[in-house]
Amino acid sequence: MQGAELFGRDLAGVDWTGADLRDARLIHTTLAGATLRGAVLAGAVLDRVSLARADLTGADLSGARLIHTDLTGASLTGARLRRAALLSCTLDPAMLVSRELADAAVAGRDQIRLVTAGAPAMLETVVFSPDGAVLATSGGGAAQLWDVASGRELSQLVCDDSLACGVAFSPDGALVAVAGPDATVSLRDVTSGREIRRFTGHRRSVQAVVFSPDGTRLASAGDDGTARLWEVVSGWQAHELTGHTGSVVSVAFSPDGAVVAAAGYDGTARLWKTADGRRLHVLGDGGFAVRSVAFSPDGAQIVTGGDEGTVRLWEVASGREVRRLTGHPSGVTAVAFSPDGTLLASAGDEDGTARLWDAAGGREIRELATQSEETSAVAFSPDGMTIATVGDDGTARLWEVATGRLLRTFTPHNGAVLAVSLFPRGDRLIAAGDDGTVRLWDLASGHQLHRLAGHTGAVRDAALSSDGTLAASAGSDGTMRVWDTASGRERYHLDGGPGGVGTLAFSPDGACVATNGSDATARLWDVASGRLLRTLVSRGDFSVWDVAFSPDGTRLAAGCSDGKARLWEVASGRLLRRLKGFEWPVWALAFSPDGARLAAAGDNGTVRLWDTARGRALRTLPGRDDSRVRALAFSPDGIRLATAGSDGTVRLWDAADGRELRQLSGHTGSVGSVAFCPGGTRVVSAGDDGTIRLWDAADGRVLATLVGLPEGWAALLADGSYLLAGPTSDGAFWWLMNGVRFEAGELDGHVPAIRRLPEAEPVLRG
């Protein structure tokens, strides 16, 4: 009866002991008093089904959906309901706290959180959960959890003030450790994403983390040249393992937990006793960097992979090299043993392959063409039947070990918002998207008013004229386009010059647009005709990364790749000043409302404020080396400064004394644009996670999240209600309850707070 459809059937008292009902659909069906001992209902849908007094002892309902189902008096002893969903079901009170329902999502019992899709990025780590049901990947600033069976993303793990470098599951699958560039390791609850503990001690970025086999300890590896052992319960650092003379990028426990191994850029792998931190062996000659290390399941051997392009097997007891496997034409980024120890997997740095080897004889068995230019990590599933790979294309892939057949791909939602610009009254905004469109949004209603299409590549920037009648956009296709905002019609487009256009700005009077150039210039264009008015030049070999007009329109500031900000006189094209202070490129600029100050953001995460009249440095706002500030904005009164960073956070600062006032956290990827609304009470930001977020500047609350979809749009409110225009949410957002993912509409009517709003209802007031 697998996959059967049963509608309106009266099957009270039926004996279906051991029946295979997986993926079946049972609608308006009575199974009261039925015997379903040991039956398999995995993935089944039970909608308005009576299971009152039914015997479900030992039944498998993993991943099943039970909707308006009556379970009163039913026996669930030993039943498996992992990742099952129970919506508006009738239950005995004791069931809610039973062991059988602990891993199910029960509406009314479990907390629900809204999840927006993670930003696409190069992936660096991949691991399976102990039961093989969840895949974790990390890279580009976050860790993602994926459902292996469906290939759908479940959630992201982003620390409040940090981003992810590496990830590891605890042996029981309940916890996940996330290594971050802020020199910490964050311990998180898998189901809720809540941080339980943070481990501090490393002096630079933490690159890798792993649990001991018994789950009592963590090992971490960092750019400070150390590996460290931590007690999971107390957070206490047990040992600092030294000896490496460069970054340590991989770490592993032996199966018995008695030995820990770490691989480093100094060309060695090192082994220590976990009991006392005593060093046992140094493997390698200190030549090419060693990127990865793993123990065999019996603990007798260790495998390493490195930049010399070989996979090397070592004897743990003696430290002697046993075998060397060759085949990769370039470096090896990752290695792994199969659970039974018969196979080895390796990932190639530049050849875009993963390879399977016979561990005993060293023979290459199979090559997997991953379609990535660089394959950065590999992992075997717990049953050894499949292998996961990740790479620089941002996609995780699942392969069948026996045949090498590609089974499934795990692809993040793609739709980064690269820039936003507010209309003069603050009631609407335009957003530049990675999908090649400019979208016009009404903030009060949450509605998307126009979708402006014409660019043949990503739209890097967008700006509005001072009266809001025109919009200009800069595309990766090398063009600048000017649009009528009322009709959404394109007026004209033009070639932006050498290197194309990456950023632009309207003059305050709306008469001209400034664009950046890669040839040490900025260009001024006549808006009415599209004619080039003037090229602003300066000596040197640099690119212009950002441009901004002074509020009175008399000066143009440019952030440059040589670490300087330049000021030109617009009327004459004369270079007025070079503002120095950065060793790295200046990525973003903003004038204060009175034009007296210029804020500039450098590649090292710091922001500097200058007196524009004298060129004198006023203040430096501290940053983090691991986070680039991508956008800046002054509040309308000039008192506060907002910064948006690659760490996914918007920060508000006191522009006078440099104090950090508040952090706005919620984006799941880098934030590339930020602006204050005219009253200064709200802040709008846009990020690589494909969302536009509207914040309360006073308390940091997210008021609304706007999401553009391929066939529509959505507005998501803090109270759980939402607007959706289009057939589906297209994987851009969903709700997560006890590890179970729900798409738009699936919780409506079952959870009072989650409801789809009529399009006529405004989403924001005031």
Summarize the topology.
Layout: E1 5-7, E2 25-27, E3 45-47, E4 65-67, E5 85-87, E6 105-106, E7 112-116, E8 125-128, E9 134-139, E10 142-147, E11 153-157, E12 166-169, E13 175-179, E14 184-189, E15 195-200, E16 206-211, E17 217-222, E18 227-231, E19 237-241, E20 248-253, E21 259-264, E22 269-273, E23 279-283, E24 290-295, E25 301-306, E26 310-315, E27 321-326, E28 332-337, E29 343-348, E30 353-358, E31 364-369, E32 375-380, E33 386-391, E34 396-400, E35 406-410, E36 417-422, E37 428-433, E38 437-442, E39 448-453, E40 459-464, E41 470-475, E42 479-484, E43 490-495, E44 504-506, E45 512-516, E46 521-526, E47 532-537, E48 544-549, E49 555-560, E50 565-569, E51 575-579, E52 586-591, E53 597-602, E54 607-611, E55 616-621, E56 629-634, E57 640-645, E58 649-654, E59 660-665, E60 671-676, E61 682-687, E62 691-696, E63 702-709, E64 712-717, E65 722-725, E66 733-737, E67 740-742
Parallel strand pairs: 1-2, 2-3, 3-4, 4-5, 5-6
Antiparallel strand pairs: 7-66, 8-9, 9-10, 10-11, 12-13, 13-14, 14-15, 16-17, 17-18, 18-19, 20-21, 21-22, 22-23, 24-25, 25-26, 26-27, 28-29, 29-30, 30-31, 32-33, 33-34, 34-35, 36-37, 37-38, 38-39, 40-41, 41-42, 42-43, 44-45, 45-46, 46-47, 48-49, 49-50, 50-51, 52-53, 53-54, 54-55, 56-57, 57-58, 58-59, ...
